[in-house]
C-alpha cells in the first residue's frame, strides 16, 4: 500500500506537506513511502509494523531526528546508505527486520559505524565504547543496496477508510504481550505499562474476560492519541451514553 499525500495530511493534521513535523503510521500495511521525498521538515516518523523495504525516500528528510522502523521488511543493512547523510538523526529503531540477521552484535556495530551520531538504537542508549568498537567490528556501507527489477511495481492505495484501519490496528493490539505493548507506547511517547498492571503476565489471572478487557483498554489508550478534537468529542459522547446506561441499570437492580 502506498502512503498518499491525503493520508499524511490527515494523520499529521497539517494543511501542507512542508508543515508536517511528526507522522505516525504504525501498523498501516505500508510498502511505498515515496511521499517522504516531499516532507522536508519532518522530524519524527513512526513506520513500525508495516511492509517497508526501501528507505531511499528518506534521504532528503534533513530535519529527521527520530525514525521508528521496527517490524518491517528491510532486507539489507545497505539501506542505511540513505540515512548516513541525515545530520540530525539521533534515534533509530530498526530491530525485528530481516536485515538484523542472526548476529545481534554485528548488526548493532554495523549500524553504529554508519550512523555514529545516534544516541539511541533499538531503545538502547549508545555508548562511547560501542562507537569505538563499531569502527572495528562494524561493516562500512559505501553504496546503496542492489535494487529489485521492478522499481515501481507497488500498487496504488485502495484508500482504506480510517475506520477500517482502526479496526485492523485494534485487532492486532488485542493480542500484544507486555513487551510489545510497551514498545509501541515508547514509540508513541507514552509511559510503559508496569508488569503488575498488565493482566496477561499476572500469575493469578485466570479470568479470560478480564484479560480481554485489559487488553482492549490498552488498545483504546493507544488509539486515542491518534484522534483529533472532533474524534475525541465523539468518543466522549459515546462514553457518556455508556456510563448513563450502566448507572441506569445499577439503579434498576437496586
TrEMBL record:
Compositionally biased spans, kind Low complexity: 156-171
Positions of the U2A'/phosphoprotein 32 family A C-terminal domain: 104-122
Keywords, alphabetical: Leucine-rich repeat, Repeat
The GO biological-process annotations, alphabetized, read as:
cytoskeleton organization; mRNA splicing, via spliceosome
Gene Ontology, cellular component aspect: ciliary basal body; photoreceptor cell cilium; U4/U6 x U5 tri-snRNP complex
- Which superkingdom is the protein from? Eukaryota
Residues of the region (Disordered) are 142-171
Quaternary state and interactors = Found in a complex with CFAP410, NEK1 and SPATA7. Interacts with NEK1.
What does it do? Answer: Plays a role in cilia formation and/or maintenance. Plays a role in the regulation of cell morphology and cytoskeletal organization. Involved in DNA damage repair.
The identity of this protein, by name, is Cilia- and flagella-associated protein 410
Amino acid at each position: 500500500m502506498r502512503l498518499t499525500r491525503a493520508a499524511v495530511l490527515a494523520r499529521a493534521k497539517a494543511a501542507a506537506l512542508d508543515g508536517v513535523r511528526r507522522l505516525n503510521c504504525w501498523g498501516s500495511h505500508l510498502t511505498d513511502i515515496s511521499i517522504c521525498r516531499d516532507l522536508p521538515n519532518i522530524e519524527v516518523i513512526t513506520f513500525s509494523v508495516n511492509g517497508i523495504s526501501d528507505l531511499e525516500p528518506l534521504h532528503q528528510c534533513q530535519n529527521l531526528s527520530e525514525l521508528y522502523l521496527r517490524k518491517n521488511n528491510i532486507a539489507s543493512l545497505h539501506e542505511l546508505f540513505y540515512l548516513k547523510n541525515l545530520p540530525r538523526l539521533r534515534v533509530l529503531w530498526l530491530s525485528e527486520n530481516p536485515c538484523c540477521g542472526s548476529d545481534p552484535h554485528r548488526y548493532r556495530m554495523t549500524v553504529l559505524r554508519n550512523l555514529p551520531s545516534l544516541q539511541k538504537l533499538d531503545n538502547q542508549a549508545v555508548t562511547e565504547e560501542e562507537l569505538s568498537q563499531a569502527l572495528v567490528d562494524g561493516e562500512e556501507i559505501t553504496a546503496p543496496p542492489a535494487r529489485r527489477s521492478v522499481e515501481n511495481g507497488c500498487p496504488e492505495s485502495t484508500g482504506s477508510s480510517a475506520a477500517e484501519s482502526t479496526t485492523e490496528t485494534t485487532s492486532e493490539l488485542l493480542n500484544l504481550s507486555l513487551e510489545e505493548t510497551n514498545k509501541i507506547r515508547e514509540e508513541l511517547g507514552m509511559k510503559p505499562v508496569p508488569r503488575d498492571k498488565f493482566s496477561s503476565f499476572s500469575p493469578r489471572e485466570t479470568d479470560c474476560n478480564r484479560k480481554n478487557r485489559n487488553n482492549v483498554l490498552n488498545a483504546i489508550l493507544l488509539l486515542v492519541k491518534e484522534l483529533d478534537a472532533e474524534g475525541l468529542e465523539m468518543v466522549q459522547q459515546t462514553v457518556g451514553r455508556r456510563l448513563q446506561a450502566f448507572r441506569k441499570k445499577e439503579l434498576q437492580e437496586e
